Structures are given as C-alpha cells and as structure tokens.
Amino acid sequence: MAKTPATPKPTAAELDLLQVLWPLGSATAKQVHQEIQKQRPDVTYATVLRLMQIMHTKGILIRDESERSHVYAPAQAQDSLQTNLLKDLIQKAFSGSAKALVLAALRSGISKKEREEIEKLLKEEDK
C-alpha cells in the first residue's frame, strides 16, 4: 500500500510569509517583499525570494513560470493548513485532546470581546 506524502509543515518564517500571501492569493516575490516591508523594513528582497523558492521546493507554494516574473501562490488554503497544523498540535502537545487544547487557550488569556464571541458561537451550535 503506497503511503501518501505528508503535508509539509511550514517553519515560523514560512508561516509569516503565508500570512502575507494568503490575502493576496498569488503574487510575485517583489509584491510579497513590499507587503512584508510594511511591518518589517529590515527584510531584504533576496531573503523573501530565497524563502519563496525554498517553500516552492518543499511544496508549500506553487509557482506560475509563464510570465517573466514568477508568480507564487499557496499550495494549501489558509483554513486547510491551519486545520492540519492544529490536528498535529493536538496530537503532539495535548495527547489528542481537543478539549485540553481549548482549555489551555482559554486559560492563556482572552479578551472580554473574544470570550463573548466564543459564547455566541457555542450558543449557535446548540440550536
């Protein structure tokens, strides 16, 4: 029986880049660099380009090479990747217990507004 390849797990730097790329949908390295510089002016274009190339090699990004400037896009939708990372975290850090994860998150300090949003969501689920 053939094993399906595991979804690559992005590093912290790769997740930061994905947070910029997801809202854009697809973009050139230059466009991603311009967005990143708004928050982190110290990041160079060469660093962004190299990271995007590595992410493409790992299968985290897909690349359209039909234009002069390559256009990159996330290989996975944001919610899909977050769900996979969350499942992995639940297994590794909380012995498979989603309840333990939620309780830890609630204990770590949430705002009153966030608590109200959670309570509203839970009430809607009960209907």
From TrEMBL:
* InterPro entries found in the cross-reference section: BlaI_family (IPR005650), WH-like_DNA-bd_sf (IPR036388), WH_DNA-bd_sf (IPR036390)
Q: Where is the signal peptide?
A: none
Under SUPFAM superfamilies, the record lists: Winged helix' DNA-binding domain
Q: Name one GO molecular function term.
A: DNA binding
Biological process according to GO:
negative regulation of DNA-templated transcription
Task: Give the superkingdom in one word.
Answer: Bacteria
Q: Write out the entry's keywords from A to Z.
A: DNA-binding, Transcription, Transcription regulation
Q: Which family does it belong to?
A: Belongs to the BlaI transcriptional regulatory family.
This protein's name: BlaI/MecI/CopY family transcriptional regulator
Organism annotation: Massilia polaris
Taxon lineage:
Bacteria, Pseudomonadati, Pseudomonadota, Betaproteobacteria, Burkholderiales
